[in-house]
Each structure stands twice: as C-alpha cells, then as structure tokens.
Specification:
The protein is α/β, with parallel strands linked by helices. It has a domain at 2-193 and 224-252 and 294-316: NAD(P)-binding Rossmann-like Domain (Rossmann fold, 3-Layer(aba) Sandwich), CATH 3.40.50.720. The chain contains 13 helices and twelve strands. The protein has helices at residues 10-22, 61-71, 85-90, 93-115, 119-124, 157-176, 198-207, 227-240, 257-271, 302-308, 316-329, 331-337, 340-350, and strands at 2-5, 27-31, 51-55, 75-78, 126-132, 180-185, 187-189, 212-215, 221-226, 246-249, 254-256, 284-287. The strands form three sheets. It has a seven-stranded parallel beta sheet with strand order 3-2-1-4-5-6-10, with helices on both faces. The chain has a three-stranded mixed beta sheet with strand order 7-9-11. The chain has a two-stranded parallel sheet with strand order 8-12. α2 (61-71) runs parallel beside α4 (93-115). The longest helix has 23 residues, at 93-115. The protein is globular, with a radius of gyration of 20 Å.
C-alpha cells in the first residue's frame, strides 16, 4: 500500500480518487482535517476496502511511526501542508509548524521505518514530497522559465516554508540515503479546490453577484495546470523518477490573472448567464495588491517530459470550462465547505482591500 498525507485537500483527494480508479493498491490517508481538509472530497471511496483514513498530524511522530509499523507502506506521497499564500502573510507560524517542522518529523519517522526494512524493500521504497514552483521566486517577463537548477529565492512565508521543507527532504537523501523524490509544480485548478484560491474564489463570487477581487493591476502571470494532470505527473515520478532528484511540473499555460478571471467570466456567461444578461466581467474589482506579490512564475518541463514522458493533457480553456461546470453542478459541496470559518477568512482578507486599491 501507499501512505498519502493531506489526502482530504484539493490535490491529495484528486490523487487518491485517480489512484483507486486505476489501480488495486490500497491507500492509507493521514490528514489532520484543518479548515482545508474535507472528508467529503473522498466520499466516493469512503466505503472502499482499499481506502483507509486516519485523522492525524504529520508532525505527530509517534502516530506516524505506529501507522508505518502497522501498514508497512512501500511509498509515501506527502501533500499535507498549509497552502495559501495570503494566510501565510497573516499567520506565518502555522506554515512553519506544518510545512517545516511537520515535514521534518515525518522524515524522521519515515527514515527510521525505512532503515529497518529488508534490503529489497529498502531499494524499492520512495518518499515523494509534493512542492511548488513558488520556491524559485519571481521571474521577469522575458526571463527563461524555472528549470530544476534555478536558484531557490522564496518570497512569501508560504514559499519560504515549502523551500525549507524541500531542503530537509534533500538533506535526508544526501545524509541518510532515503530514496526521496521532490516535485515543484505550478498553480493547479480543477474540482474540489477550496474557494480561497483565485479560480474557485472568482467562480464563487461571480455566481453570487459579488465583486471579483483582482490584486493590483492583475498582470501577474502564473502557469496553470489541471489537477488531474498534476496527479498523473506525480504517478509518473513515483513510478520511474530517480531517487534524490526533483522534477518541475507545469501546464504550458502561462496566463495573466486578469485573463484567467476573464476566461472564467466568459465561461459563466455561456453556462449560467446573469439575470438581465450583463457580463460577469462587470464584477471585476481591482483591489490593493498582495504584499511581496511575485510577478511571474513559469515552468520548463523538459526534464519530466524527456525522462518520464509526461506532458499535460488538459488545455487551459477546456479545463476552465470543465471546472466552472463542476462548480455549477456541485453547489452543495461549496455550501458544505464555506462555513462560518470561511466567511470569517473572506471578511478578514478582503474588507478594506477595495477601498485601499
Ligand atoms: P490544500 O490546502 O487543499 O490541502 C492540504 C491538506 O493537508 C488538507 O486536507 C489539510 O487538512 C491537510 N493538512 C494540513 N496540515 C496537516 C498536518 N499537519 N497533518 C496532516 N494533514 C494536514 O492543499 P493543496 O492545494 O491540495 O496542496 C497540496 C500540496 O501541494 C501542498 O503541499 C502544496 O504546497 C502543494 N502544491 C499546491 C499547488 C496548488 O496550486 N494548490 C501547486 C503546487 C504545489
Ligand atoms: P492563488 O490562487 O492564491 O495562488 P498563488 O498565490 O499560490 O499563485 O493566487 C493566484 C494569483 O491570483 C496570484 O497572483 C494572486 C492572485 N489573486 C488575486 O488577484 N485575487 C484574489 O482574491 C486571490 C485569492 C488571488
């Protein structure tokens, strides 16, 4: 079996669902169920004997040691993290706690387990750490995309904490020989993304006739990848990636934020026109910029494409249409995750930004 951490979040749940759809190998999911974790994301497999769920912290070393001894996984895929940049600005300590200390404690527990495995199982074991392109910092408009050897220059508390965790993973390979793999992926989108991130937030607000907050001039560029493509890339890395290596993963879809917002508005105009027919784009509101806002991320995927034969399948426009449709079809899910604490976050984050724009 494999152990997945953070499997109740956006990418982890897509990974578990895709895995169990295509393979017989069981999955143990360790998730703390923070505000970002929703067991309902995995409702489709909740009765499946190949799926096991344990609520707990990756930083709880005793618990992880017990789970490893009991279930003896052949691989670990570490998704568990605090993942939202804006929250890392207003509350950075949780990011240090989970992303840095949590990953470190997970590595300690996994390393002890791995060292005690018989030699063939040791050789086959993998620890896959799921990270972000944000560790590389910001690119100028005409600079070449991030390769794996790009210098780490994290600019936000989130990216700093992910960078630190990547360094610990690297060190556990070099110092202890743990067969690690690290992936640095660009911005994901797709079903079940919590509506604090740009794409689901814009869909959520647009459907309610609320302002669509665009930070600063909206010309910041991200590379966008459909979550299912990311999960296929992770499976390729897990299967044939070389231990000790890192792989950049991207969607070959660089877009300015304003263009992303307009693409969503266009899809909504077709799929769910507003009463009276006014365009959703009328709701776009430029608000005060995010502090330290990185201007551009872009991925050079030559290594994963050349070595592992992976490339993205879902085009951005097609992916956005499908994602908007998923949110239209799953408003009950949206209602279930946008509880009191979500409303508190939105009010804390966005009140005052519009007037200060
Ligand atoms: P998410 O916020 O949707 O989910 C995180 C999950 O981790 C939640 O289920 C949460 O309950 C769980 N979790 C948090 N702290 C935990 C802890 N201490 N112990 C156990 N579980 C814990 O995040 P996501 O968007 O699915 O991202 C998953 C991973 O992928 C993260 O490591 C993130 O840095 C990375 N990543 C995300 C993106 C993106 O665009 N979302 C892009 C590249 C990389
Ligand atoms: P986000 O989804 O938070 O991902 P990340 O910061 O990890 O790239 O944001 C994507 C881009 O959208 C980023 O440049 C910030 C911008 N953004 C807005 O303009 N308005 C918003 O309300 C949010 C949440 C993000």
């Amino acid at each position: 079996m494999i152990l997945v951490t953070g499997g109740c979040g956006f990418i982890g749940s897509a990974f578990v669902l895709g895995w169990l759809q295509d393979r017989d190998e069981p999955v143990l999911n360790l998730d703390l169920l923070t505000y970002a974790g929703h067991p309902g994301n995995l409702q489709a497999v909740s009765g499946d004997p190949r799926y096991l769920f344990v609520r707990g912290d990756i930083g709880d070393q005793q618990l992880v040691e017990r789970l490893l001894a009991e279930h003896r996984p052949r691989a670990i895929v570490n998704f568990a993290a605090e993942s939202h940049v804006d929250r890392s600005i207003s509350g950075p300590l949780a990011f240090a706690q989970t992303n840095v200390v949590g990953t470190l404690k997970l590595l300690e527990a996994v390393n002890a387990y791995w060292r005690a495995l018989p030699a063939p199982a040791q050789a086959d074991f993998r620890f896959l750490h799921v990270s972000t392109d944000e560790v590389f910092g910001s690119l100028a408009a005409d600079a070449p995309a991030f390769s794996e050897s790009h210098r780490y220059e994290p600019n936000s508390p989130y990216s700093a904490s992910k960078a630190a965790s990547d360094h610990f993973v690297r060190a556990w390979h070099h110092t202890f020989g743990l067969p690690t793999l690290t992936t640095n992926c660009s911005n994901n989108y797709g079903p079940r993304q919590f509506p604090e991130k740009l794409i689901p937030l814009i869909i959520h607000n647009a459907l309610r006739g609320k302002p669509l907050p665009v930070y600063g001039d909206g010309r910041q560029v991200r590379d966008w990848l459909h979550v299912d493509d990311h999960c296929l890339a992770l499976r390729a890395v897990l299967a044939t990636g070389r231990p000790g290596e890192s792989y950049n993963i991207g969607g070959r879809s660089e877009r300015a934020n304003l263009d992303v917002v307009h693409a969503i508005c266009g899809a909504l105009d077709r799929l769910r026109p507003r009463p009276g027919g006014a365009p959703h784009a009328e709701l776009v509101t430029h608000v005060k910029d995010r502090p330290g806002h990185d201007r551009r991320y872009a991925i050079d995927d030559g290594k994963i494409a050349g070595e592992l034969g992976w490339q993205p399948r879902v085009g951005f426009e097609e992916g956005i249409r499908g994602t908007v449709q998923w949110y239209l079809d799953n408003q009950a899910w949206v209602e279930s995750v946008t509880s009191g604490s979500y409303r508190d976050w939105v009010s804390q984050q966005y009140t005052g930004l519009a007037t200060a724009a």
